[in-house]
User: What shape does this take?
Amino acid sequence: MHPILFELPGGFPIRSFGVLLAAGFLLGSWIFSRLVARFSDDPERDVAVYGALPLWILIGIVVGARLFYVVVE
Assistant: This one.
């Protein structure tokens, strides 16, 4: 796997890790919203209620990973 997929004009590299991280987050969020809509009693209300959960999980993962890096290093 190439670490840099391509570069935007101006020399800004698009890295494969970031693209795969974003794709995984979007796919996981989509699957989560489909599961909430399928198994809830009121799909419209529950999708709106649980809609922000994947974003908070992503923020927690990024902050937790950074804190773990600081503690280890």
